[in-house]
Known about the structure:
6 helices, globular, two-stranded antiparallel ribbon, single chain, Rossmann fold, alpha/beta, nine-stranded mixed sheet
Amino acid sequence: xxxxxxxxxxxxxxxQWAFEHGSYLFTATERVFTDGLLEAGGLPVLLMSAAETxxxxxxxxxxxxxxxxxxxxxxxxxxxxAPETGTPDHERDAFEIALVRAAVDRGLPVLAVCxxxxxxxxxxxxxLVQHAPTHQGYGHPTVGFxxxxxxxxxxxxxxxxxxxxxxxxxxxxTVGSTAPxxxxxxxxxxxxxxxxxxPDQPLITVQWHPERQLDNDYWSRLASWLVREARTYSSxxxxxxxx
Length: 243
């Protein structure tokens, strides 16, 4: 494939690692994400959680992948902290919420997984269910534990196919009220939202972990979709017109 690889920004988690000579804070992401984007023809770059860099980050990117991690601070969607809600990463929350809003403003292609699905919903004005115990405790890398029904005619259906798909889960929070600019395009049998998308822009979010489902190609399909959309985006001028 000719031309440069489209640049895909990948969000990371923060983790404190202790060593004999001291303790250090790392920003990292799972290799399965970057490997999948590389295989699809993209150039993944790890983004540092610094809200003051949002505009510069979005300006240099052709696509954005939001990955999993800690619970989103409930004040971002106007709620008090529930007892079951985990300790938030305030720095990451502020950065990723600003990042999503800037990306949508520019029409930047976005793919969001698990926490990323929740961040996108919150950033665009939706709310979360802080604790959904029936969704907790899944996550085996090769086994689907429940079905999601993907809506026919949706952008997600064009990537994975419409109808039922077996997926895993590793979360206890879910989308509550869907953001006004998004539409829910996949649900579980109990009606929980498992995927959303923007009707007019290349933005898809999924609640499950396709990167951990080693018995199917969901992750490679989604990664390929993001890279294709990013390549299209990169071919446009800053004004959004084809050169």
